[in-house]
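Service request form, structural biology core

Requester: graduate student, group of Dr. S.
Request type: structure prediction, single chain
Budget code: on file
Notes: please return the result as structure tokens.

Sequence provided:
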Amino acid sequence: MLHRFSRTELLVGTEGLDRLRNSSVTIFGLGGVGSFAAEAICRAGVGRITIVDFDDICLTNVNRQLHALEGTVGKGKSRTMADRLRSINPAAEIIPHREFYSEDSSDLLLAGDHDCVLDAIDHFTSKIHLMARCRSMGIPIISSMGAAMKLDPTLVRVDDISRTTVCRMARSVRKLLKKEGITEGITVVYSLEEFRKPQTPDAACGSSCICPNRGDQAFSCEHRRVVLGSMMTIPALFGITMAGVAINRILQAP
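Core staff response, request fulfilled:
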């Protein structure tokens, strides 16, 4: 009988579809990378999806984030994305958290079973803590490196963090992980494309934030050290690639 995941079943078989249905994936960060990762995981038929983001949707998100639409600007990313995922697969358990990942929130957000964690966090302190915590807990994690200021989709790669080159974020992450005693063993998606210089620096929103709920933001634009340019193609490719790696690992798990 045909159903919404019939085409998936043709590819991975009934056993593979059952594996996905019985799996649990958590996505941290629902921006240009994370929103596409979450949707790809949901459309694959994963049965339990936890999504984490503290932020609200901004008008400047429309160029690259799936949940950013006319009518959703100003709403919370996690709840809006949860509604979207439930409309894709009503049978899935979708668990949204409007939280900023940190050492203080890590126990709550990493409670329960996780077949895989997808890290699409931009904040370095949070990102490194999440990687180290997942490593110590034995949770498989796939982490996004720098997708901003890039245009060439043919240069996106998947590798261990120890073997990354060119990417400025990956270089910084390697140094910070080394302080935690970690030099390898974390899968990342990154690009071999050189970082492009901003073309119109005054278009950054750090000094002229237009977020509707600016006063409610714990980490609003003026708190960001730097705001970088991006468009949908590269962040989306990063997110879908992360999801693809996670899906294959779930299907191949012993």
